[in-house]
Amino acid sequence: MDTVDAVIVGAGHNGLVAANLLADAGWSVRVLEATADPGGAVRSGEITAPGYLSDLFSAFYPLGYASPVLRDLGLDRFGLSWTHAPNVFSHLLPDGRAATVSRDLRRTMASMEAFAPGDGERWLSAYEDWSAVSGRMLEAILRPFPPVRAGLGLARQLGTGELLRLARRLVLSARELGSELFRGEGAQLLLAGCALHTDLSPEEAGGGVYGWLLSMLGQEVGWPVPVGGAGKLTSALVERLRSRGGEIVYHAPVSRVLVARGRAMGVRTADGRDWRASRAVVADVPAPALFLDLVAPRWLPGRMLEDLAHFRWDGATVKVDWALDGPIPWTNAEVSGSGTVHLGADLDGLTRYAGKLATGAVPEDPFLLFGQMTTTDQTRSPEGTESAWAYTHLPHRTDWPADEIAAHVERIEAVVEAQAPGFRGRVVGRHVFAPGDLQEANPSLVGGAVGGGTSAAFQQLFFRPIPGLGRADTPVDRLYLGSSSAHPGGGVHGAPGANAARAALARDRGLTGDAYRMAVDGLQRAIYR
């Protein structure tokens, strides 16, 4: 087998981003994918009924749309286009009221004002605060750690006092942040519901930043989807890579990273073939899979292996897709035009739901993230129908009996039926992804965990995936972690893959690359001694 400059393990979107950036630098690139399809958790297909297209895993992409990583790839030239629902998202309370974010700022303000006088202006103020820093914030979040350039830019822009206030905001819980910014439950719920896109409860420190980020991005750019399904984002990445000479090999599960004298030399696949790489191996796989399964323990510091024992997965997920012969019959028509609907709990209900998960119990009243895909993109199902989905979290465990999943699907549909009487009567097709099904379809979704590891503060920045540098570099020279287990974590934005590619390019720059590696080695020895 011929040697290439870089072997990428996994054709998830992060692996494809890394492959594209290395190919842009003139490297020969080969991507090895364990399954039959590229994209990882960014795929679509007909799984409910003929003519109904479902996004199999992830769906709405505010971070992807706003990501400087994906924007710089120019994927519109390879068939990617975006579309929006009439409204961005709503939180539907059990009593039937709804708080709705629209890309029309005035309409959002009116929705917030209905919950508390003055909350419309408070939303405007919060959005203006976000708008002032959004560009540099995204650069700081999505570029390699530490974000020196973006951090210095924020410091110059804000000054010491405002920078400290921003830093404080970033460590607040979703409940605390919501109560500081707003008076009414509507706006507070929008933040808390967005925080629960992760595995964080409304009470956990650091959860508020996710709610602030997703809700304000919704106001700024919406929560768009690719026209024609999530797979169109993947196909654009694949076509771009092929146009630059990159290669993808399918049905090629990697069983070992080949290491000699502390340096990654390539990989071995399950069929016994060796695939050589002269400059880099980038792994778009979960951190435990890379360091505990693919790299021989002799090449890793003992302290690092001890730390990996404390790696925390995010919660499991159960996802239901439906084909419906008509629109969702919501009692509150306000949510009919929202691409995403949060439903099943008020603020205290969100805390109770998260508390059940934290104790390993199955919530009797699940909080749902519900997607109206045809409302957002008319290509997803026949005219007058709806392709929809909902997901909710479960405790992370290895086995979920079919009867437990069936009972939880019944709870999920009951939550929707309570707010949309007649919903069940419109279902003409259904597909259920239990946690184990998610992992079978995409081996990186271990136990149905979709975030590559918890979003808790103790596993972010230089703690992700374990205490270290917060960078893609590993103790094995020229081996890089480029999955959502690496900084900055889950979501479809391409940053872990891009960061891995940048680290590989930095390492390869002659004398400066040798100095770079010496610095990395020295820091890692200090951490793992």
Task: Describe what you observe in this structure.
The structure is a single chain. By secondary structure, this protein is α/β, with parallel strands linked by helices. The chain has three domains: 4-36 and 250-312 and 451-528, FAD/NAD(P)-binding domain; 49-62 and 82-103 and 222-230 and 315-450, Polyamine Oxidase, Chain A, domain 2 (Alpha-Beta Complex), CATH 3.90.660; 111-208, no CATH class. 40% of the residues lie in helices and 18% in strands. The chain is built from 18 helices and 18 strands. It has helices at residues 13-24, 62-66, 68-71, 105-113, 119-142, 148-170, 174-181, 185-195, 207-221, 231-243, 287-294, 302-308, 347-358, 373-376, 402-419, 435-441, 495-507, 510-528, and strands at residues 4-9, 29-32, 44-45, 54-55, 82-83, 87-92, 98-101, 225-226, 247-249, 254-260, 263-269, 274-283, 316-324, 338-343, 368-372, 386-394, 427-433, 479-481. The strands form four sheets. Strands 1, 2, 9, 10, 11, 12 and 18 form a seven-stranded mixed β-sheet that branches. Strands 7-6-14-15-16-13-17 form a seven-stranded mixed β-sheet. A two-stranded antiparallel sheet has the order 3-4. A hairpin with a 2-residue loop joins strand 10 and strand 11 (263-269). Helix 5 (119-142) crosses helix 9 (207-221). The protein is globular and about 65 Å long. 54% of the residues are buried. The mean pLDDT is 95.
